[in-house]
Amino acid sequence: MAITQSAAPPQVTIWETTNAIVASRALHVVAELGVADHVGQQSTPVATIAVGCGVDPRSLDRVLRLLSSIGIFARRRGGYAHTDASLLLRSDAPGSMRAFARMMNLRLMNETFTELMHSVRSGEPAVNLVEPRGFWAYLTDHPDQARVFGEAMEARAAAYIAEVLAAYDFRRFTTIADIGGGLGHLLRALLTAAPGATGILFDLPEVVAATDVAVERLTTVAGDFFRDPLPRADLYIVMEVLHDWDDQDCLRILSAIRRGAAPGATVAVIENIVPETGDDPRVNALDVLMLAITGGRERTAAELADLFGSSGFRLQAVIPTAGPMKVVEATAV
Ligand SMILES: C[S@@+](CC[C@H](N)C(=O)[O-])C[C@H]1O[C@@H](n2cnc3c(N)ncnc32)[C@H](O)[C@@H]1O
Q1: Which domains does the chain have, with CATH numbers?
Q2: Where are the alpha helices (DSSP H) in 54-134?
Q3: What atom of ligand 1 comes closest to residue 237's alpha carbon?
Q4: Which of 33, 259, 272, 289 has the fewest CB atoms within 10 Å, i.e. the most exposed one?
């Protein structure tokens, strides 16, 4: 007997999933062009938006009509006004997600995902076909794209940092190291919530160089977690990093943390966690993205517990947040 997941007729499910790429690509283009920055408080004529972006008004109108039909912009009197979703595409919006929507325009993302078939056939990350040195080496060589990626991570995190801070008491710790902390968005928020703590942001040299270092109680350490010693801390944050790597590399990262850690130190892995039962389509989508783009994967809490057990840590707790992320806490043994 067939298993039915969706209330839509089966043909519609296939049709919609096949064509999801159209709206997705329209969104990437609109974000890349900065269309939302040219839409005012009231409905703005499409010709005005097109002049602002330097593009063809008729084509832009068709792309915006598609997006407005799914709630991104509202079509009014031959022009477009903002909705809550399109406001998030403005460059100056609090929690702007423009960079996140631009991320799939990055050459490596775009071309790699086109090669998903390679991952499925070979079990290898598709990125090997496009950039055999891997995703991070490519970003190192392309600072403009690395900036968009870093801002995309910041934009994505903006949506759930408050939920993480509400779920986990960071004030217990005095030295907090954020390993692969990107532009330092989580650490900055966390130091505000934990006024007695100091923070150390650890990431690749070119990423650390792009961060705003003038933050009280925050220092940066540039390095490679596969080669360089990690700073000593009593809490290590590892947010959306392990999912970029296969199990062997995760063990190398966790073992490097263990070598640098103060006795009894805590690791807080903050990631989407594959549920033991049921399905979370967002986690599954991220998992397939990782399959192609980095060779990493999303994991269950039990899989993370195994990695902890093999790298000198013991799982303590899996703490849900109000959003999609979980805090998986382990202590050094
Ligand atoms: C998916 S991003 C997550 C960033 C941030 N933790 C967040 O959740 O927004 C992964 C991070 O790992 C960093 N990274 C990748 N390889 C690294 C390495 N070998 N050593 C240190 N950091 C690395 C990247 O530069 C990037 O900032």
Answers
A1: 10-90 (1.10.10.10), 151-332 (3.40.50.150)
A2: 57-68, 84-87, 98-102, 107-114, 116-122, 127-130
A3: 6
A4: 259
